[in-house]
Design a protein that fits this description.
Largest sheet: 5 strands, mixed
Helix content: 25-40%
Shape: flat
Strand content: 15-25%
CATH superfamily of one domain: Topoisomerase II, domain 5
């Protein structure tokens, strides 16, 4: 029998292997594949392969933030067909997660439609939802076309994909990561973008920085859902070893209700807690533990698009603090987060600490900058080479023409030019392709000027290539630029232990008071009780300071939120109650002290909102003459700070207004031009769009006024020599948008070289002039005579010869 069995095996296709061989030849390669190509992120760009492939596929399709949304199914198909041959569900889930602001600290995908919720609702099918890249995702992809990263063949060798993205900000720390591989797992918490960039910059400036010093900058994780983080000694251990455990707690408060009852209000949850499941769990506990939680008589979810608000209603004779203690112990109002920082570095998975991640990231960014600089340097040298040939040609143009005319064909002309002037083939081709228009004196000057600029650029780029210090300086400067553009306030509050968490409780319903909110000429903001405001003399006094000039003024009760738009194109949502309360002539606080705005960032519009956003649209006007129309609904963003308009380099926002039907657009420039245009052809654009051209500007000109007017509106303009012009808008002809318009005032040596300001006289106001000697002069519009549009304007009756006006502001009186 034994002989027959052996004989049978020998003549079949069965293969005998030991368990050790199977594990070594099959299981280990599979585990390696899952670890390196599926589950773990790379330290350089903080992305798993599927995330990287999704972002690159969207970039390849041109789905940038300024383009329309595209169906999710289109992107999933592109990613599956070219880069990621796995299940469509895995790709779709990964893409949608990058669009969910309750999962990602800074979203990388901009989702449109039902993309799921914190209640655990699944996103709609991919045929219904639409996506495009979020603005910050472009920073991960920036410079990818400049030889900065290695590309490898895809799964079927038909195209190439990047091994990693340039990753111009530390995404691994900012958005964290979660993944389970074979024998390995990672769980990296998200952090605040500004803190992480500041920490990276500190490491660049001092590579020997200690962990304790770094933790003064990167204070700890910052979860997108907010809440409290109790760190104790665990956080330092986690940042040192890559392993640790944090306690997360929801943000709750106790409010007074009718008939001496109390409400427990939940406004922020621990990270990745399902709100719907949490409330169901509380309801179940209420039924199971009647002795402890019998005081709860109702649970309701009042959350809306403006934020989370889950309310637990407590009976009259029960202590809400005691109920909360039970809930913290028995529900996900308090959870733990196990930190396990594992990422791919040097081609293998590594357990890493905070300083390790920053070290790898900074090194990688230096190499990215070096590769990009070499690429730009080669391009510049190639251009210099061509320009050298063109300059030789235009300086010897008669001889060049003679050689070309004497040649029988292009090949002979090319050879003759190369022999005569010692040119390369590319230079000779460029000369032969040169248009006759390049032979004008101006074009010849431009060629020589471009050559000088290219040579200066080559010197600068070569200096960066030759110096590691300069490479790191470039990394630092570009990181700080990203921080300025995408700065977001911290959401999670860090405490040493749970005992330090204070649960706010009000004994009475807070009364709602009316306030005047004013922003003065230096950008300082304050709220003034309406009673004090109404009793104050608001005219500019003889010895006034800039604190008395209020170009922006709004009225709102204390329960409103102030949408504050700034010159840098940002919007800050500031509760009116958070503003400093002052008397009318007191100074107030800079915006940076109120809401964490950048130093020097100033408000250009303040719009109070109560509960729901107003209907209609907003108009945005910029210094460089752009105008953008956007629906109010686009600004329903669950963040206290966000980008309101995309500004071009060197531009800034100058005003924001509610779009009013029947009114026209009015632009006034420093060069004395004005344009009145209809706004019927303005397209409605998205929140981060840059707008369209409103007025055509001459070189060095800029917009001093952009607003809406009627024909009855009067305009008051002032020049830098103190000449005034008051006209009625009916004198300005209606023209198409993006024209230069007509002259509002003839400028010259006598009356001034520029307009410093123009204002519409819609509401009672004064014009506050600031002279070169820093003197403040208040001008009443009625004291300026009304005149026709043509003319040089007139000085004020109290005009002093030699007056120089450095700036002027509209001072609102009511």
């Amino acid at each position: 029998m034994a002989e027959e069995k052996v004989h049978h095996i020998k003549h079949t296709n069965l293969v005998q292997r030991t368990v050790e061989e199977v594990l070594h030849n099959s299981m280990i390669p599979y585990a390696e594949y899952v670890i390196l190509d599926r589950a773990l992120p790379r330290v350089e760009d903080g992305l798993k392969p599927v995330q990287r492939r999704i972002l690159y596929a969207m970039y390849d399709l041109g789905l940038t933030p300024d383009k329309p949304y595209r169906k999710s199914a289109r992107i999933v198909g592109e990613c599956l067909g070219k880069y990621h041959p796995h299940g469509d569900r895995s790709v779709y889930d990964a893409m949608i997660r990058m669009a969910q602001n309750f999962n990602m600290r800074m979203t990388l995908v901009d989702g449109h439609g039902n993309i799921g919720s914190v209640d655990g609702d699944s996103p709609a099918a991919m045929r219904y939802t639409e996506v495009k890249l979020a603005p910050l995702a472009l920073e991960l992809l920036r410079d990818i076309d400049k030889d900065t990263v290695k590309f490898s063949l895809n799964f079927d060798d038909t195209t190439k994909e990047p091994d990693m993205l340039p990753g111009r900000f530390p995404n691994l720390l900012v958005n964290g990561a979660y993944g389970i591989a074979v024998g390995l797992a990672t769980n990296i918490p998200p952090h605040n973008l500004s803190e992480v960039i500041d920490g990276t910059v500190a490491f660049i400036e001092n590579p020997d920085i200690t962990l304790k010093q770094m933790m003064k900058i990167i204070k700890g994780p910052d979860f997108p859902t907010g809440g409290f983080i109790a760190v104790g000694e665990e956080l330092e251990k986690a940042y040192e070893t890559g392993k640790g455990k944090l306690i997360l707690r929801a943000k709750v408060s106790i409010e007074s209700a009718e008939n001496d009852k109390k409400n427990i209000v939940i406004t922020e949850l621990p990270y990745q807690v399902n709100k719907s499941n949490l409330l169901e769990k509380i309801l179940t506990l209420k039924e199971d533990k009647k002795d402890l939680l019998a005081g709860i008589y109702d649970i309701c979810d009042e959350s809306d698009r403006n934020g989370m608000r889950a309310v637990i209603r407590v009976r009259k004779d029960y202590d809400p603090q005691a109920i909360l203690k039970v809930l913290f112990k028995s529900t996900d109002l308090e959870t733990t987060f196990g930190i396990n920082i594992v990422a791919i570095a040097d081609g293998k998975p590594q357990q890493m600490g905070l300083l390790d991640i920053i070290y790898y990231y900074v090194n990688y960014q230096r190499i990215v900058v070096l590769k990009r600089t070499r690429y730009l340097l080669n391009e510049a040298k190639e251009r210099e080479h061509i320009l050298d040939g063109l300059v030789i040609a235009v300086r010897n143009i008669d001889e060049v023409i003679k050689i070309i005319r004497a040649s029988q064909n292009v090949s002979e002309a090319r050879t003759a030019l190369r022999n005569r002037f010692a040119l390369s083939e590319r230079q000779a081709n460029a000369i032969l392709d040169m248009r006759l228009a390049r032979l004008t004196s101006l074009e010849i000057f431009k060629l020589e000027q471009e050559l000088k600029e290219i040579q200066a650029l080559i010197k600068q780029l070569q200096g960066i290539v030759d110096s590691k210090r300069k490479q790191l300086e470039v990394v630092k400067d570009e990181l700080l630029a990203i921080k300025r553009q995408y700065k977001d306030n911290r959401r999670s509050v860090i405490v040493n232990d749970l005992a330090a968490i204070d649960i706010p409780a009000d004994t009475d319903v807070m009364p709602v008071s009316d306030y005047a909110i004013a922003v003065n000429a230096s950008g300082v903001i304050k709220r003034v009780p309406f009673k004090n405001y109404s009793m104050s003399s608001r005219e500019i006094s003889e010895r006034a300071t800039v604190n008395e000039i209020s170009p922006l003024l709004a009225f709102a009760p204390s329960d409103n939120t102030l949408y504050t738009f700034t010159n840098l194109g940002n919007c800050y949502k500031i509760p009116v109650s958070d503003l400093p309360e002052c008397r009318w002539r007191e100074k107030g606080l800079a915006l940076s002290a109120v809401c964490g705005a950048e130093e020097g960032e100033r408000p250009v519009a303040i719009l109070p909102v109560k509960d729901n956003l107003p209907k209609g649209s907003l108009l945005f006007f910029t210094r460089n003459g752009y105008v953008k129309k956007t629906d109010w609904s686009e600004y329903s963003v669950n963040r206290s700070c966000f980008q309101a308009v995309k500004l071009k380099e060197g531009d800034e926002l100058i005003s924001v207004e509610d779009c009013v039907d029947g009114m026209k657009l009015m632009f006034v420039t420093a060069g004395g031009m004005c344009l009145k245009a209809d706004k019927g052809d303005l397209p409605t654009q998205g929140r981060v769009a840059g707008g369209v051209r409103g007025v055509s500007l001459s070189d060095f000109d800029y917009t001093v006024l952009a607003c809406q007017v009627t024909d009855a509106t009067q305009l008051l303009a002032v020049t830098d020599k103190g000449y005034f012009k008051r006209i009625t808008c009916s004198d300005v002809p209606l023209m198409a948008r993006y024209r230069k318009g007509v002259k509002l005032i003839d400028l010259g040596k006598d009356n001034g070289m520029n307009l410093v300001q123009a204002v519409p006289l819609i509401s009672p106001c004064q014009l506050g002039l600031i002279t070169a000697e820093n003197e403040i002069i208040g001008i009443k519009p009625d004291s300026i005579p009304l005149e026709a549009r043509a003319g040089k304007g007139k000085p004020h009756k109290e005009y002093k010869k030699g007056l120089k006006v450095s700036s002027a502001y509209k001072h609102l009186l009511q």
